[in-house]
Amino acid sequence: MRYSKFPKGLIILLFTSLVIGGGIYYVKHRHLLYQGDFDTVRLALPKTEATAMPRIALHKNFFRKHGIKIELSQQDLSKYSFQQVLNGNADLAAVEESPIIHQAFKGTDFVILSIIHTATRNVKLLAKKSNGITTLTELRGKKIGVVEETSAEFFLFEILRHLDMSFNDVQIVYGSNEELETKFRSNEIEAVCLREPHIHLLNHEINPDNSFISHGKDNYLTVVNLVGSKEYVTKNPEIVKRFLNALKDAENEILENKERVIGVVADELNLEKDYLYDSCVGAVCQLSLTERLLMELESEANWLINQKGYSDRTMPDFEKYFAIDILESVKPDSTRDLR
User: Fold this and answer.
1) Residue 15: its pLDDT value, please?
2) How many CB atoms lie within 10 A of CB 338?
3) For the purposes of burial, counting CB atoms within 10 Å of the CB of 163, is it exposed (0-12), middle (13-18) or buried (19 or more)?
């Protein structure tokens, strides 16, 4: 049997081309390849589409590009993700404004590194029309479930305020997501106010003709932030900056490839793309620290002082928690309206 052979000269030419091509690629892209030792960062994320930025950074290996290995833990609510940092079980976490405010009142040491997501459809109220709720005005006197010390609680207050009502005009039922969902299914409560995607998933169980859902006419902004313990950030500023650089790469990816990003987040969280397109209307994924965040924090803190038994406490200085210099070193002008 005879075997055909490639000419020896052709093999040498192909090999040489590969070596030269690889060398050229390395020279052109070596600034993108991290040259130092890898550092492990323990990251806690709530299971929500508002964590798209770090999820894309993981999916696209942007953290590895900047010399970081991620140990990921996931929680149902951002307050639980924040608790992982406070308990020393995580270095960084994604968290909404409400848990931040409550911890600031307690004098807890932590650092707000950046906003990573803002949206007006992250929190919703769900009710059944069969329970007598076909408009928001019919909430009066009804039992409404909400998780305490979350953005959903303040969202509910804002809805009622716009209706010239207060918590005294309804029956507030506190509990965990799971407890409230169970009570809603059994009609122990007539409405429930929760963070997405919990409302979306619960709404799937209701006949569409019997469902009443509201996101407050897009007048309530939720802000998801990257936070860390003050001790960790103080001891590891360069690691934190590399982490933020990975998120900056993810920010660009989100801006350039929205369709692909929605597909990744949908797969990771087992959500439908159509739902994500709706929930992401008006959503912004950009690294920043803004005066708007400061105003949101102070507004909710005022509510706690005036309505929720915090009258003996003074307004926290929220800006002192902002890591302005660290964020500006990674993304100049991202804090310009605070200067």
Assistant:
1) 57
2) 15
3) middle
Contact (Cβ atoms closer than 8 angstroms) between residue 323 and residue 229: no
By residue range, what is the domain housing residue 304? 35-119+221-338
Q: What is the pLDDT of residues 156-198, one digit of tens each?
A: 999 999 999 999 999 999 999 999 999 999 999 999 999 999 9
Listed residues 166, 189, 218: the one ending a domain: 218
Chosen domain end from 176, 199, 218: 218
Distances (CA, A) of 280 to 97, 137, 157, 259, 307: 19, 27, 23, 12, 31
**What does the DSSP assignment read for 73-127?**
EEESSHHHHHHHHHTTS-SEEEEEHHHHHHHHHTT--EEEEEEEEEESSSEEEEE
Same structural domain, 235 and 314? yes
Spatial CA neighbour of 291 closest among 246, 257, 237, 334: 334
DSSP state of 314: P
**Cα(239)–Cα(38) distance, rounded to whole angstroms?**
10
Give the predicted TM-score (pTM) of the model.
0.85
Cβ pair 131, 187 in contact under 8 A: yes
Residue 175 belongs to a domain with what CATH number? 3.40.190.10
| 22 C-beta neighbours (distance < 10 Å), count | 10
* Residue recorded with tokens 């650089």: 245
Q: List all residues 6 or more positions away from 180 whose beta carbon is below 8 Å from its beta carbon.
A: 145, 146, 147, 173, 189, 192, 194
The reply to whether 212 and 225 lie within a common domain is no
d(CA 293, CA 224): 10
**58, 232 in Cβ contact below 8 A?**
no
Strand partners, 191: 127, 144
Higher-scoring residue by pLDDT: 97, 17? 97
Of 56, 50, 1, 22, which is closest to residue 248 (Cα–Cα)? 56
